[in-house]
Design goal:
- This protein is 10% helix and 41% strand.
- The protein is mainly beta.
- The chain has a 5-stranded mixed β-sheet, with no helix packed on it. The protein has a 4-stranded antiparallel β-sheet with strand order 2-33-32-31, with no helix packed on it.
């Protein structure tokens, strides 16, 4: 009788555990379900194809700033009624040399990343030029921080990714850092996993060469920042979306199941083509001190061959730079798909729940969001980029 009672109790415990696990699995499955939506038709297209389009910023009055790095121009586009070019190129306080990223700042301002002059410049709401800050902090021989912005917040904070072991390191993690232009202070807002890299050194102390190369399709996190200062991090290990708020709180969404994408020759070629666009840094002493300038290699400029790399069987869930945040505070996370297929995004709300999946129109990539619009870029057969404005699709998950 004692053994029978014990066995009965065990059966009841096992049954209760099975029911609990079943209920938990059902909850996860329910959380992962999300409707798939698509964009409608474009409402405006910029009249000219550009050789480079690194930054796009919608102003409060509907005008759009476009950074054409290869053309060395900041363009002011009025959808439906033409465009102008902003000021002149050069090294002076009212000039720029190689425009790159464009990000919103408080009071209608815009942050311009000027690679040619290695500085960040505030463009005022009236499109006049304001304060500047250097991109590089520190000296090359003592450890240098490169402040290449990923996003900005409503208090004027500038967010960038800082390697924990310096520019030429191969650490597997980095800090999400925030620069406060008012105080000059740099603080840490989180940590992210980096893609694997290989480092090869050659030469002697007087003529040393360092070659750092990424490992194809290695797991890495991706992140961006909302206007209210919350940082959205897509975790590659146990795919989920995390929000980190300015006070240090963390909101973690549920893990999202995914089907790995196989790596084929077309995927290898696409990955190698994406090696272009990396930063080149030059430092020269012009007699008045060290002067730094930067530029980007053209997309598709890599001379690498697939045989130069070791390739995994499948891709990770997300590529580099996979996260964007829209005007409603939702995080858009780009998923890896087979080469040549339309880009696919998971959309997450402020609680980290996936609320929608969005497939972009064929041959388009997402560059930024406006107040009620999304801006996509189409590349033609000559690699010219054409900017298109789309109404935002109807999505759930507004905060």
């Amino acid at each position: 009788m004692t053994n029978t009672a014990a066995n009965t109790g065990m059966v009841r415990v096992e049954l209760a555990m099975a029911m609990a696990l079943s209920a938990a699995a059902a909850g996860v499955a329910e959380a992962q379900e999300a409707p798939q939506v698509s964009f409608g038709m474009a409402t405006a297209t910029f009249e000219d194809g550009l050789g480079s389009m690194r930054g796009v910023r919608e102003l409060e009055d509907g005008r759009v700033l476009i950074a054409d790095g290869f053309g060395a121009a900041v363009i002011v586009w009025r959808p439906g009624s033409g465009a102008d070019t902003l000021t002149n190129t050069g090294q002076g306080p009212e000039e720029y040399r190689t425009p790159d990223g464009l990000f919103p700042l408080p009071d209608g301002g815009t942050l311009l990343v000027d690679l040619g002059n290695a500085r960040l410049t505030r463009i005022e709401a009236d499109l006049g030029f304001g304060e500047t800050w250097p991109i590089a902090h520190g000296a090359p021989n003592t450890g240098m921080t490169m402040m290449i912005p990923v996003g900005t917040d409503r208090d004027g904070g500038i967010y960038f990714q800082r390697r924990l072991d310096g520019m030429a390191g191969t650490s597997d993690s980095a800090a999400v850092a925030r620069f406060d232009p008012a105080s000059g202070e740099i603080t840490e807002a989180g940590r992210v996993r980096l893609a694997e890299q290989t480092r090869v050194e050659s030469g002697d102390a007087n003529n040393r060469s360092v070659n750092i190369r990424p490992v194809p399709f290695s797991n890495q996190d991706a992140w961006n920042v909302a206007w209210d200062g919350r940082v959205a991090i897509a975790r590659a290990d146990g795919y989920r979306l995390e929000w980190m708020d300015p006070a240090g709180g963390v909101t973690r969404g549920p893990e999202i199941a995914y089907e790995p994408v196989s790596v084929r020759r077309a995927d290898q070629d696409e990955w190698i083509e994406g090696l272009g666009g990396g930063l080149r840094v030059e430092a020269t002493d012009d007699g008045g001190g060290m002067r730094m300038s930067m530029s980007r290699a053209p997309s598709g400029s890599s001379a690498a061959d697939p045989s130069d790399f070791e390739w995994p069987d499948v891709k990770p869930v997300i590529p580099a730079g996979a996260v964007a945040v829209d005007g409603e505070g939702r995080a858009w996370v780009r998923r890896h798909v087979p080469a040549g297929e339309p880009h696919l995004y998971d959309v997450f709300d402020g609680g980290g729940q996936r609320v929608a999946r969005v497939e972009l129109p064929e041959d388009r990539r997402l560059v930024t969001f406006g107040a009620a619009s999304a801006y996509l870029v189409r590349s033609d057969e000559f690699d010219f980029a054409w900017l298109e404005k789309y109404p935002m699709p109807t999505l759930p998950g507004t905060r």
